[in-house]
Amino acid sequence: MAITVRTITTEEHVAFNREQPSVSFLQTPAWARVKSEWRGESLGWFDEGGKQIGAGLVLYRQLPRIKRYLAYLPEGPVIDWESDDIGAWLTPLADHLRRQKAFGIRIGCPLVARRWHTETVKAAIADPKLARLSQASPDVVNHAATRTRNQLRSLGWRPPDSEQGFAAGQPQYVFQLPIADRTTDEVLKGMNQLWRRNIKKADKLGVTVRQGTVDDLPAFHTLYVETAERDHFGPRPLSYFRTMFDALLAEDPDRIRLYLAEHQGDLVAATTWVRVGDHAWYSYGASSTAKRDVRGSNAIQWRMITDAMIAGATVYDLRGITESVDADDPHLGLIQFKVGTGGDAVEYLGEWDLPLNPVLYKAFDLYLKRRR
């Protein structure tokens, strides 16, 4: 089958995404408005009969002083990743991006490669002989992902070096809670004892969770900055979140939500929730240093989970985790918090690079490393 790739309109892109069961919110046209430092383009894949069979959002980042670009498709494109001939889909993409003066391409394959259930993750954390989740036998292996990985390598694609300056892409390992065809009682029962106790405690102490509006973003951001200082990461400015809400809500009035957990008039936790189709994500979170004992973080997560179920989502995605399960890893607590929900650790096939001009590709890498 001969597949062609060409630019499509925002309306065509939105219409295609609407017909899919699940598309990453990073592959919606609205996301290009959020990432204003990049130039966005919507692409469509078409079969020989002219039917659209795929779509993708490309973000272009220019090399300084030269009109050449890195082309990035975060968690995309939306194509048949289990195809027997992935080259038929990616070769016309590379041809199109060459014509757009791209010196390199990064894609994010959303194909699940392996999955570890809750008890397997817990056992891996408890086993002192295991340092990484990949050393534990997975409960589910997708052999189609193995075939796609081999095809990508044969076509010249390669996983990005973890030390690359522009490797701040999307997580390869995430934690997901399956919620399809389950009742809230069943989901709650699947959580560990600590999660159930903390949800009950928050309710008993009078923690309330409400859905906020864009007018509540300043309060969220104040708490988010406090969280960033405590956890030692660089916070995004308030303007970023205003832009995110404006862009995503313009595309779909229920694409993104803000939640706030309060106790006796004090904001103790705040989060953002995103949904596309049957996939809901916990996106950003913040919590106060004071009143940690009222368990606002558990209460707000439980509200987002139950709201995702009401909205018809089949998966609630708690986003990234590290692969490390080493007891000395400072990120272990994040995995332990998420595994308490009773979900699965998931490995995606992840990000892959195709250098179209290796010299410029390396130069761009060095440029961004110096900016870090």
From TrEMBL:
<comment type="similarity">
    <text>Belongs to the FemABX family.</text>
</comment>
<keyword id="KW-0133">Cell shape</keyword>
<dbReference type="GO" id="GO:0016755">
    <property type="term" value="F:aminoacyltransferase activity"/>
</dbReference>
<dbReference type="GO" id="GO:0071555">
    <property type="term" value="P:cell wall organization"/>
</dbReference>
<dbReference type="GO" id="GO:0008360">
    <property type="term" value="P:regulation of cell shape"/>
</dbReference>
<dbReference type="InterPro" id="IPR016181">
    <property type="entry name" value="Acyl_CoA_acyltransferase"/>
</dbReference>
<keyword id="KW-0961">Cell wall biogenesis/degradation</keyword>
<keyword id="KW-0573">Peptidoglycan synthesis</keyword>
<protein>
    <submittedName>
        <fullName>Lipid II:glycine glycyltransferase (Peptidoglycan interpeptide bridge formation enzyme)</fullName>
    </submittedName>
</protein>
<dbReference type="InterPro" id="IPR003447">
    <property type="entry name" value="FEMABX"/>
</dbReference>
<dbReference type="InterPro" id="IPR050644">
    <property type="entry name" value="PG_Glycine_Bridge_Synth"/>
</dbReference>
<dbReference type="GO" id="GO:0009252">
    <property type="term" value="P:peptidoglycan biosynthetic process"/>
</dbReference>
<keyword id="KW-0808">Transferase</keyword>
<dbReference type="Pfam" id="PF02388">
    <property type="entry name" value="FemAB"/>
</dbReference>
<keyword id="KW-0012">Acyltransferase</keyword>
